From TrEMBL:
It comes from Paenibacillus albicereus. The chain crosses the membrane at residues 21-45, 317-340. The keyword Cell division does not apply. It is found in: Cell membrane. It comes from the Bacteria. Keywords: Cell membrane, Kinase, Membrane, Phosphoprotein, Transferase, Transmembrane, Transmembrane helix. This is Sensor histidine kinase. One of its GO terms (molecular function) is phosphorelay sensor kinase activity.
Length: 615
């Protein structure tokens, strides 16, 4: 007995219960987590801490690189501003192309002609640029034509150094093709007695605006200590040090201050990618290179500093491990129980639907997968109910149509032949107008009892012409009509009898027999988006605004919301268009004014002749 109960319990709560299996699996994972979680948490947090340290160093390197680029941009901007001022450009060009003594005589001769608001004097212009930037130590203008060097020093007097390529290495040094950012040239610094300690040089070519030939260079020495301001936001968390090196390994900047004025001894061990490297000790190395500007920003973090930053995490990891193990056991149990309850509701509703009860709904508004399944199931039941209702109504309408068709089958051939006999009789008696009316009526009858639901547009318009011709003959000179059609649309299919109800509405409600100018016009043209637009316009009685608004509201209702009617009106046209082409591809619009007539616009997609011929 106990064995049978155990088996029943196993089948009910274990073998056939997905959530019990899921909970058992999660519990097993939790047991394994007790063993491995401490190690995994420590490894993860330690790696995260190392990543934060390296990311902070990377941001510091990018800040230093941005400051170097800003220095280069400022020098380029000085040269660009020089070109934009015509008087200043001419002044600098003369300065670089003539001996310095001739330049002073040139300045004296042109003093009264120079604009007061500009920098007509090149010497004054560069002095102001030096004073405007506190990070500039020296600014030098070199003439490659006359081979002299004019220098301005922050807090000092200008210097002029006239050179001779046979006696000095400076012209050769200035002629070298160097990157825009480099180490200070020792020959230039020695010749001018400049301080080259903790300085990096930025150079820009100066050309003659007229000939575009290079006439000289602008050389600016920036203080490397100014780069420390770029590191200030990162210093609290910065580990290791940051360097700026030339391609030859010359140190332009060192946040630690140890390698200034020398070649970095481990430059050959640094690659262009982030990697581990053994320098004076094992370290993590990151490199940002700018080949055009000619420098590399290098970040070095010793591994021992990374290890020291993560040493305090062990105790925290142990505490978090115990809490994580507890949560790993409890939270899945609550989650599985909640999911089981919600899934059970869905299963019970499905069983009700299997019995034919479509009234039930799942009351679950959550946005997760189970909530979406429940909401989708509710929508499916709603659509199923609507479909059943629509098919039921459609079946009723079909039966009504079949009944009407049976009633209409009073030997149509007999009626058509009889009308033809009457027409021939009228012709023989000379009643041509009566014969024409009988012929039009016969054509209308044959078209209406045809089996096709789609006909070519020319045939539908011809049917409309026959219908209007009956009333033109009847009212003689008091009624006229016109029909226009784009010839390219003649074979396009249209829903049969989609125009005749509009004409009938006009004859019944709009035509005024007391007037002599009654008119009805039809036009069929090709509209945008691959559509046919048929416009039916009359000058009849029209509609009051309230009646027009009520009609438009009835036309906007979906087919299932329409009231049953036995007449073929505008609603009948719109319903058939929607049935054949879809609710968005076809439509109908009415515009009317009392005493001014009514315009009905119908649109539907352009079709093919084969389609109309086959239906």
């Amino acid at each position: 007995m106990k064995t049978m109960k155990a088996r029943s319990f196993y089948r009910t709560y274990v073998k056939n219960n997905l959530f019990t299996k899921l909970l058992a699996t999660l519990s097993a994972i939790s047991v394994l987590t007790i063993v491995t979680l401490a190690y995994l948490l420590y490894a993860f947090i330690a790696d995260s801490a190392r990543s934060d340290i390296l990311a902070n160093q990377r941001r510091a390197m990018e800040a230093v690189s941005a400051r170097l680029q800003a220095s280069s941009d400022s020098v380029q901007r000085i040269v660009a501003d020089l070109y934009q001022d015509q008087a200043l450009s001419q002044n600098v060009t003369y300065l670089l192309s003539h001996p310095f003594a001739d330049y002073f005589r040139y300045r004296i001769d042109r003093y009264t002609d120079e604009p007061r608001a500009g920098y007509g004097n090149a010497i004054t212009y560069f002095e102001r640029q030096l004073a405007a930037d506190s990070s500039i130590r020296q600014m030098m203008l070199y003439s490659s034509v006359q081979q002299y060097l004019y220098a301005w020093k922050a807090g000092g007097s200008p210097q002029l150094l006239e050179l001779n390529s046979a006696l000095s290495y400076i012209p050769d040094a200035m002629a070298l093709e160097l990157p825009s950012i480099s180490a200070p040239n020792p020959w230039v610094a020695r010749g001018l007695g400049l301080d080259a300690d903790r300085v990096y040089a930025v150079r820009a070519a100066v050309n003659n605006p007229g000939t575009l030939q290079k006439t000289g260079q602008l050389l600016v020495h920036f203080s490397s200590d100014s780069l420390l301001s770029a590191l200030r936001p990162y210093l609290d968390e910065l580990k290791g040090y940051v360097l700026v090196l030339t391609p030859q390994g010359q140190v332009l900047f060192d946040s630690s201050g140890r390698y200034y004025g020398s070649i970095y001894p481990y430059a050959s061990r640094i690659s262009s990618l982030d990697a581990a490297a053994t320098l004076d000790r094992p370290s993590r190395v990151a490199v940002l290179s700018d080949s055009l500007a000619g420098y590399s920003v290098v970040g070095v973090v010793p591994d021992e500093q990374l290890d020291a930053a993560t040493a305090g995490l062990r105790r925290t990891v142990l505490l978090l491990s115990g809490l994580g193990i507890l949560l790993a056991v409890l939270l899945p149990g609550f989650a599985v129980a909640s999911v089981a309850r919600r899934t059970g509701s869905l299963v019970r509703l499905m069983r009700r639907v299997e019995t034919g009860d479509f009234a039930g709904r799942i009351q679950d508004e959550r946005g997760d997968e189970l909530g979406q399944i429940g909401q989708g199931f509710n929508r499916m039941l709603d659509r199923l109910n609507r479909q059943i209702e629509q098919e039921y109504k459609a079946e009723l309408r079909q039966r009504s149509t079949e009944l009407s068709a049976i009633q209409a089958r009073i030997n149509p051939h007999f009626l058509s032949n009889t009308l033809e006999v009457i027409r021939m009789r009228a012709v023989s008696r000379g009643a041509d107008d009566v014969a024409e009316m009988i012929y039009s009526l016969s054509v209308l009858f044959r078209s209406m009892v045809g089996s096709r639901s789609l006909v070519p547009l020319r045939e539908e318009l011809e049917l409309g012409r026959r219908y209007l011709e009956l009333f033109r003959i009847r009212y003689k000179d008091r009624f006229a009509y016109s029909i226009r059609m784009d010839d390219s649309l003649a074979t396009s299919p249209v829903v049969k009898l989609s125009l005749q109800p509009v004409m009938e509405n006009y004859i019944v409600h709009g035509l005024d027999t007391d007037r002599d100018d009654n008119r009805f016009d039809i036009s069929a043209v090709r509209g945008g988006g691959g559509r046919i637009v048929v416009t039916l316009r009359d000058n009849g009685r029209g509609m009051e605004p309230q009646a027009l608004e009520a009609l438009r509201q009835r036309l906007q209702r979906p087919p299932q919301a329409q009231e049953e009617s036995g007449s073929f009106g505008l609603q009948s046209i719109l319903d058939r268009l929607r049935l054949v082409y879809g609710s968005h591809a076809a439509g109908l619009d009415v515009d009317s004014a009392a005493g001014a007539g009514t315009t009905v616009t119908i649109w539907f997609p352009v079709g093919s002749e084969e389609r109309s011929g086959g239906l």
